[in-house]
Design goal:
The protein has 10 helices and 10 strands. With 286 residues, the chain is α+β, with helices and mostly antiparallel strands. The chain has 2 domains: 92 residues, 2-Layer Sandwich (Phosphorylase Kinase, domain 1), CATH 3.30.200; 183 residues, Transferase(Phosphotransferase), domain 1, CATH 1.10.510. It has a 5-stranded antiparallel β-sheet with strand order 1-2-3-6-5. A hairpin with a 2-residue loop joins β8 and β9. α3 packs antiparallel against α10, α6 packs antiparallel against α8 and α9 runs antiparallel to α10. The longest helix is centred in the middle third of the chain and has 20 residues. The N and C termini lie far apart (68 Å). The N terminus is likely disordered.
């Protein structure tokens, strides 16, 4: 029996979405399935490895921000969008830079000191602050969308999936409880009511602070088992498990200032949250 062509081989094992055929790129393997679609590793004509992100129209949408990022990335900590297009089936595709690292979370920072984790979070806040200064926001920040690696002896983070958002229904349901735990209350409310507002900077502040609280305390922000509706009520009532930072930090970090910034960042009202630049300063706290 003749061997299947490479594309058919990939389609047989890729999972939910057949691999894309996009001019100028050769798909070599499946990278993984996500909330809004599936990602593939591909090579360009000069053998550069990139990521092709296929967006399932039933679960996600590509924001106008993606085209803006294809022209210029606001910060090295935001994964670059190299190109936008449609594949042979008319599905929306993003060509992204290939980023190495582990997802942010307990494993992503395992073995790192609190000072190193604070430096990582500060760099992440600075990257998002630059994104906000460019008039945009992420809207779906969570551990799986932040890759951590060591660079020049320090932890560094890169934000993925900027310019792509799940849509109400299947898109957000695929995120699961853990993914929804990092959403700002107003985004979770929009998901439950079926609306699709563009992401706002205050949402990223909430999500970053949720990530920071978990990374610094090694505890989930919310207890397990909540339905999306119960989780929204817990967010509005501030019934999270974060009780503040209690372990002392070495100079020049100011524990009180950082703790205050984190608490305000989890405010149910987006108007009460500090801007991302202020969070970055608090993480430096000099």
């Amino acid at each position: 029996m003749a061997a299947k062509p490479p594309t058919q081989q990939l389609e047989a094992v890729s999972g939910r979405i057949p691999p894309p055929i996009l001019e100028g790129y050769q798909v070599v393997r499946t990278l993984g399935a996500g909330v809004v679609g599936e990602a593939f590793v591909a090579r360009t004509g000069d053998r550069l490895e990139v990521v092709l992100k296929v967006v399932d129209a039933g679960r996600g949408r590509i924001l106008p921000l993606a085209a803006k990022l294809a022209e210029e990335s606001p910060h090295a900590g935001i994964a670059r969008v190299l190109a936008l297009g449609e594949d042979d089936r008319g599905r929306g595709c993003l060509v992204l830079e290939r980023v190495e690292g582990r997802p942010l979370g307990a494993r992503g920072v395992q073995g790192s000191s609190r000072v190193e984790v604070l430096g990582l979070l500060r760099g992440l806040a600075q990257a998002l602050s630059a994104l906000h200064a460019a008039g945009a926001a992420h809207g779906n920040l969570k551990p799986g969308n932040v890759l951590v690696r060591r660079a020049d002896g320090a932890l560094a983070a890169t934000v993925l999936d900027t310019g792509v958002m799940p849509i109400p229904g299947e898109g957000w349901q695929a995120a699961g409880r853990r993914g929804l735990a990092y959403l700002a209350p107003e985004r979770l409310d929009a998901m439950l009511t079926g609306s699709e507002p563009d992401p706002q900077p205050a949402e990223d502040v909430y999500s970053l602070v949720a990530l920071a609280a978990e990374a610094l305390t090694a505890k989930e922000l919310f207890s397990g088992g909540e339905s999306p509706e119960a989780l929204l009520e817990a967010k509005r009532a501030r019934h999270y498990r974060f009780v503040g930072l209690t372990s002392p930090l070495p100079p020049p970090f100011d524990l009180r200032k950082l703790d205050d910034s984190l608490r305000r960042g989890l405010a149910a009202d987006p108007a009460e949250r500090p801007p991302m630049g202020e969070v970055a300063v608090a993480l430096l706290a000099r």
